């Protein structure tokens, strides 16, 4: 991220449980005038939420766990008071 965003232009949201990181979302913060937004990093094809799943989860438990972790990431994004969030670039 330092290489494609410079140190001051990126950060990471973390979800922790029991002192361990169970999810993360690194992001590239851009500013345009007074507008603050998150977008895809330059020269980066993919990036998104990383989740560490507990072992031996059944499929329905895994889905419920994903929903809970993603809700926590979304709540943290809300707290950033962004003007918008666009993580996918559309190439024409």
Description:
The protein is of the alpha+beta class and 92 residues long. It has one domain. 27% of the residues lie in helices and 34% in strands. Strands 1, 2, 3, 4 and 5 form a 5-stranded mixed beta sheet that branches. A hairpin with a 2-residue loop joins strand 1 (10-17) and strand 2. It is elongated, with a radius of gyration of 15 Å. The two termini are 25 Å apart.
Helical content stands at 25-40%
Number of helices: 2
Structural class: alpha+beta
What is the CA-CA span between the terminal residues?
A: 25 Å
Q: How much beta, percentage-wise?
A: 25-35%
Reported for the largest beta sheet, the result is: 5 strands, mixed
- Taken together, the total number of domains comes to 1
Unreliable stretches (pLDDT < 50, length at least 5) are none
Radius of gyration: 15 Å
Count of DSSP strands: 5
Mean pLDDT, to the nearest integer, reads: 89
Instruction: Write the H/E string, N to C.
Output: HEEEEHE
General form: elongated
Itemize the secondary structure elements and their pairings.
Elements: H1 2-5, E1 10-17, E2 20-32, E3 35-39, E4 50-51, H2 59-79, E5 84-86
Parallel strand pairs: 3-5
Antiparallel strand pairs: 1-2, 2-3, 2-4
Quick overview:
This protein has 92 residues and is of the alpha+beta class.
